[in-house]
Amino acid sequence: MGLFADLPNKERIVAGPGFNRWRVPPASIAIHLCIGSVYAWSIFNLPLTRAFGVVGSAAEDWLLSDVVWIFSVAIVFLGLSAAVGGKWLERVGPRMVGVTAALLWGGGFFVGGLGILSHQLWLLYLGYGVIGGVGLGLGYVSPVSTLIKWFPDRRGMATGMAIMGFGGGAMIGAPLKERLLGLFYRAPDFLGPVADVDLVTEGGRRLAQVSGELREVIVVGASDVASMIVPGPEGVYVVGTGDTGVAAAFFVLGAAYLVIMVVAAFSYRLPAPGWRPEGWEPPTEDEAEKRMVTRHDVAIDQALKTPQFYLLWVVLCFNVTAGIGVLGVAKTMMSEIFGGTLPDVVDGAFAATYVLMISVFNMLGRFFWATTSDYIGRKNTYTIFFVLGIALYLSIPYTAQQVSASPAVVWLVVFYAATMIIFTMYGGGFATIPAYLADIFGARFVGGIHGRLLTAWSTAGVLGPLAITSLRARAVDRAIERLAAEVDPAAFEARFGAGVDQLAPLVDAKTVTIPRLMELAPPGTVDPSATVYNSTMWLMAGLLAVALVANALVRPVDPKHHLKEGNEGDGG
Asked: Which CATH number fits domain 7-186+243-272+293-487+522-557: 1.20.1250.20, 3.10.450.50, 3.40.1390.20, 1.10.3660.10?
């Protein structure tokens, strides 16, 4: 009872004299490590699209575009809840917000797991997307303003420490999720090699006799083995007889995150009013003006009346849009671009490691760039993000084209390096924006203002995946049509049990794919898988150009918006 009596009142978590401020960052990082596992969502893409087929996608399995949007919904509700929760945070303190975040994030996994077990997509959206997304937003804002208050002398480093954990969440989450999926995985019933099984095709589905009745089956060919969750033999597998392990993984993760986040939230402390680090003095007016760091505060609602807020909104939104769509399909993109051209190098384990390295560079970028911004300024830091980012995004289509025409590991190295630098700047953008806001609007209400600005993340959570899934889908459809036209019709019918005139239903049933068509294509046919993301990369480069202009227009806030001396409140 005594433990929870301290929860509602933020005055009860004010630190006493002599409190070591370095005790606060570990709690902040722990919460962000838990919610940051959302960045490893792409680990779930494959098993969720194979809930029935397990070794491949069955006709009734969810599409990639169905499950990618769950990640998007979570990000949307992250931004929306942060917009509301930021002001609530200023009133009730970080402990209450942190515990609420733990209950929602952990609970979202439980509801999502029930959705997977019952194959109800709406439950997965509700649990992981809506409930979990609200937990993400509250968990995200709870430590940021707290650390800025504890580290006024090093704002960039402070926000970098907290948000570094969010970027590093996938570093722990990706291998943990892979381990859990492997632990709970159960292969479907194996009927034998294709030559030993009588197959028929109805409505685009492959069927075989099992215990006296026709059952849907998955035919695993040589091109499909590398994409199996757990490698197995080529041949025919019965749909609905295995388990990807994803539901059980959801339940275990939900319980673990709930416990860790509650413990971390009870470790939060706030500095006493008027507290300053020993030996530190605020910058003089001249120093503040030179570095575009204000000595005044702007209330939350007043900040929304300034052009600076909306310019920074565009800066964050387009920087996030450029990276978040790629994050949501990172593992899938690596497999599609290089899996067909360099199959001996890029297998399932390599792609999973790629997701892990994204998390590593995302995390390191958050601390490196945020700390760097303390020395070169926030505006200059974002200018580097956008100029360098444009060049790197434009390099990806060129790399994909080169590897498609002439497969070589050097192009994989170029792609790997370019994307890793991109993700350092993507993470750095998140870590630097709270300090940028504190410089422009003051530190007093930065938690609430930061929460409102995170609606840009919500918008990007829709724009990024929408761009990458819709543009990819169009590119895949065009590639399949071109390949099908080049394949011998007799070979096509022998492989898929139906003629080319049935291409549409065969594609809808996931029977015909680019890798399977490449097995039948004439020698010398270029695999189009490597280029299905080109149009997306061109679009992202354009968005970064707009953000570059918005950042260049940021100026100090007009004094009329400054909070008048003696005006108290929660920033409203």
From this structure: 1.20.1250.20
Report the distance separating Cα 287 and Cα 301, nearest Å: 27
Task: Compute the distance between CA of residue 234 and CA of residue 217 in angstroms, rounded to an integer.
Answer: 13
CB 296 within 8 A of CB 10: no
Kindly indicate the confidence band of residue 105, based on its pLDDT and cuts at 50, 70 and 90.
very high
Contact assessment for residue 566 and residue 443, using Cβ atoms and an 8 Å cutoff: no
3-class DSSP assignment, residue 379:
helix
Other CB atoms within 10 Å distance of the CB of residue 482 = 13
Confidence category of residue 287, pLDDT binned at 50, 70, 90: low
How much helix, strand and coil, in percent to the nearest 5, is found in the chain?
70, 5, 25
Q: Can you spell out the DSSP letters for 475-494?
A: HHHHHHHHHHHHS-HHHHHH
For the chain, helix (H) and strand (E) counts, in that order, are 23, 5
Per residue, what are the HEC states of 197-262?
CCEEEECCEEEEEECCEEEEEEEECCCCHHHCCCCCCCEEEECCCCECCHHHHHHHHHHHHHHHHH
Q: Which residues of 449-480 are buried (b: 16+ CB within 10 A; e: fewer)?
A: bbbbbbbbbbbbbbbbbbbbbebbeebbeebb
Concatenated DSSP letters of 524-549: TPPPGGGGTTHHHHHHHHHHHHHHHH
Bridge partners (DSSP) of residue 214 are 209
SS3 category, 186: strand
Q: pLDDT-derived band of residue 387, with 50, 70 and 90 as boundaries? A: very high
Assess whether pLDDT exceeds 90 at residue 388.
yes
DSSP letter for each residue of 269-301: -BPPTT---TT--PPPHHHHHHTT--SS---HH
Residue 59 class from Cβ within 10 Å (0-12 exposed, 13-18 middle, 19+ buried)? Answer: middle
Query: Does residue 127 carry a pLDDT above 90?
Result: yes
**Checking DSSP bridges between strand 205-210 and strand 199-202, what pairing results, if any?**
antiparallel
For residues 170 and 34, the answer to whether their CB atoms sit within 8 Å is: no
Determine the Cα–Cα distance for residues 447 and 141; give it in Å rounded to an integer.
Answer: 7
pLDDT of residue 148: 80
pLDDT band (50, 70, 90) for residue 1: very low
pLDDT-derived band of residue 569, with 50, 70 and 90 as boundaries? low
DSSP type of residue 500: G
Q: For position 52, what pLDDT does the model report?
A: 93
Please state, in angstroms and as integers, the Cα–Cα distance from residue 211 to each residue in 191, 193, 235, following that order: 11, 18, 18
Non-local (6+) Cβ contacts of 345 within 8 A are: 338, 409, 412
**What's residue 288's pLDDT?**
58
* Residue linked to tokens 């949501």: 328
List the structure tokens of 188.
């479907």
Counting every residue, how long is the chain?
A: 572
Structure tokens at 160: 């970098």
What are the φ and ψ backbone dihedral angles of 194, each rounded to 5 degrees?
A: -60, -40
